[in-house]
């Protein structure tokens, strides 16, 4: 019942989009900040 409402109604699809977008954004930020931290470590080692 809940899955049907989530996948068939306008509000359910919008909610699903927001959930997926938020999860994707959190993964992207985690990767981005991890790269930046490693870049700063490499620069600190060079100087």
Oligomer: single chain
Q: Would you report the number of β strands?
A: 0
H/E series, N to C? HH
What class, by secondary structure content?
Answer: mainly alpha
Give a short overview:
The protein has 47 residues and is mainly α.
Commentary on this structure:
The chain has helices spanning 2-8, 10-46. It contains 2 helices and no strands. Helix 1 (2-8) crosses helix 2. It has 47 residues and is an all-alpha fold. The protein has one domain.
Please write out the topology.
Blueprint: H1 2-8, H2 10-46
Helix pairs in contact: 1-2
Provide tags for this entry.
single chain; 47 residues; mainly alpha; rod-shaped
């Amino acid at each position: 019942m809940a899955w049907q409402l989530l996948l068939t109604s306008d509000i359910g699809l919008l909610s699903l989009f927001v959930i997926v977008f938020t999860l994707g954004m959190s993964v992207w930020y985690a990767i981005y900040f991890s790269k930046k931290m490693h870049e700063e470590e490499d620069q600190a080692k060079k100087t």
